[in-house]
Design brief:
- The chain contains four helices and 29 strands.
- The chain is mostly beta strands.
- A six-stranded mixed sheet has the order 21-20-19-27-22-28, with no helix packed on it. Strands 10-18-15-12-29 form a five-stranded mixed sheet.
Length: about 400
C-alpha cells in the first residue's frame, strides 16, 4: 500500500493535469472557438409581440453587423452592447409585418459567420393612430408646444408611459423639456422656459408596435421637424387697454385695445397664437348664446379653443384704448389687427393681465398655464423628458 506522502503527491499531480487541461481552450489544446449566433424570434415564428423586439446574441465572438428589414426596405434601429456580444432593437416593431434579420459575427478563431431569421408580428385587434403639431417644416413662436393627438383613449398609466417612452426629441441647442398629458388622448412637450430663437427641433413618435392598452397597439411612426422663429411676446393689459408687442425684448408696436366687458371678461394668463384666419364669422351660438351676435371679422388670431381671438373690430375703435366692451376677445383697429396678423407666428406668446377670469389649462394648447413642477407632474414616467433631448444631428427642417 502507498504511504500517505505518496497519496498526497498523486492528488497534486492529478490537480495539475486538470488545470492544464482547462487552459487548452474550447475544442482542444490551443484551439479557439468559432462564433455562434442566436437570433430571437427564431425563423418562422408568427404572432410575435411587437414590443418584444429583436435580440441577437453571440457566443465565442463579437457581433459585427445586424440589419432588420421590413417590406419596402425600411429597417429597424438597434443598439450593440459595449462588449459586442449582444444587440437589441431600440424601438418597438410594426404590427402585422414580416421582418428579416441578417446578422454577422467574428469568432474567437477569427472566422466570420452569418445567420438569418424571418418572422411576422401580430395583427392587433385595435390600432392607435396619431396626429402631430406643429406641421413639418413650420416656423413657430417660442411658446409653441409639441402636441401628439391620439385616435383612441389611453386610460392607464402603463399605456401612457409606453407611449412617452416611444417619443424621441432632438434639438440643435439641447434644453430641458418634458412631456405632460392633457386628458387621455393628448400628450404635449414643452421646454422648461420658452424655446431659444433659431432652435431646430425634430420629434419622432416611434408609436408603431407600442402596446397602449388591452388589444390596442400603435399603428405608425411619425416625424416632424420645425424651427423656432423670433421671440415675439405680446403683453395685453385690460387696465391700460393696451397691447405691447415686443420682438426679442424690444417694443415694436403699442396697440390700443378693448377687452371683455363686465360679465364677458377676457381670460388672464399666458396664451399662444394657436391659429390664424383672415376672415371668420363669429357666431354667439358657438358659445351657448344663439342669436346674440353673428359678425364677420377680419385678421383673426386665435388664443383659446373657447373662442378668444385678437381681431379687427371697427365697431369698437372709439372704446379701444380706454374701455372694455367686447364679448371676451381682444379688439383692435383694422390697421393694427392686420399688422398683428402678419407679424404673428403660431406659437407666439400672448400674455393677458388685469381681468377677473383666469385661463384654464386645456383651453387650447396652454402649456404655460402650469408651473414647471406642475407640468412635470403630468408625465406618466415622471421627471424630465422620457427621451433625453439630443443634438439634432439628423434634423433638417424644410421650412
Amino acid at each position: 500500500m502507498p504511504t500517505r506522502r505518496q497519496c498526497v503527491s498523486t492528488v497534486v499531480a492529478i490537480a495539475v493535469l486538470t488545470a492544464a487541461g482547462c487552459s487548452s481552450g474550447v475544442g482542444g489544446l490551443g484551439k479557439k472557438a468559432s462564433a455562434v449566433l442566436m437570433i430571437t424570434p427564431v425563423t418562422g415564428t408568427r404572432q410575435v409581440s411587437p414590443d418584444a423586439g429583436v435580440s441577437v446574441k453571440s457566443a465565442h465572438g463579437k457581433i459585427g453587423r445586424v440589419v432588420v428589414t421590413a417590406p419596402g426596405g425600411s429597417s429597424a434601429e438597434g443598439e450593440l452592447a459595449p462588449d459586442r456580444a449582444s444587440w437589441h432593437t431600440r424601438w418597438t416593431l410594426r404590427p402585422a409585418t414580416t421582418y428579416t434579420v441578417s446578422a454577422q459575427a467574428t469568432g474567437d478563431d477569427g472566422r466570420q459567420i452569418s445567420s438569418q431569421a424571418t418572422f411576422t408580428t401580430l395583427t392587433p385587434p385595435h390600432t392607435l393612430d396619431s396626429g402631430m403639431s406643429p406641421l413639418a417644416g413650420e416656423t413657430v413662436g417660442v411658446g409653441m408646444p409639441v402636441q401628439l393627438l391620439l385616435s383612441r383613449t389611453v386610460g392607464t398609466k402603463q399605456g401612457k408611459a409606453a407611449i412617452e417612452r416611444s417619443l424621441e426629441v432632438r434639438m440643435s441647442q439641447p434644453v430641458e423639456g418634458a412631456w405632460s398629458w392633457v386628458g387621455d388622448q393628448e400628450v404635449q412637450y414643452r421646454p422648461r422656459d420658452y424655446w431659444p430663437v433659431g432652435e431646430k427641433v425634430k420629434i419622432t413618435s416611434h408609436l408603431a408596435g407600442v402596446k397602449a392598452g388591452d388589444g390596442l397597439w400603435g399603428g405608425k411612426d411619425r416625424t416632424i421637424d420645425f424651427t423656432i422663429g423670433p421671440r415675439h411676446i405680446t403683453k395685453v393689459d385690460a387696465r391700460t387697454h393696451t397691447a405691447t408687442v415686443t420682438n426679442s425684448g424690444k417694443v415694436v408696436r403699442t396697440i390700443p385695445v378693448s377687452l371683455g366687458r363686465p360679465g364677458d371678461d377676457s381670460y388672464s394668463g399666458v396664451m399662444i397664437a394657436q391659429e390664424k384666419a383672415a376672415d371668420i364669422i363669429m357666431d354667439s351660438a358657438t358659445t351657448g348664446h344663439p342669436g346674440e351676435y353673428r359678425i364677420p371679422t377680419k385678421w383673426n388670431v386665435r388664443m383659446t379653443y373657447s373662442g378668444t381671438f385678437f381681431h379687427a373690430a371697427p365697431w369698437s375703435t372709439g372704446a379701444q384704448g380706454n374701455s372694455n366692451v367686447s364679448h371676451g376677445c381682444v379688439n383692435a383697429s383694422p390697421e393694427d389687427a392686420r399688422w398683428f396678423f402678419y407679424f404673428t407666428h403660431r406659437g407666439d406668446v400672448i400674455e393677458v393681465s388685469g381681468t377677473s377670469r383666469k385661463l384654464q389649462f386645456g383651453n387650447g394648447p396652454t402649456p404655460w398655464a402650469k408651473s414647471w413642477d406642475e407640468w412635470r407632474a403630468g408625465s406618466a414616467v415622471g421627471g424630465p423628458a422620457a427621451s433625453p433631448a439630443q443634438p439634432a444631428t439628423t434634423a433638417s427642417p424644410t421650412g
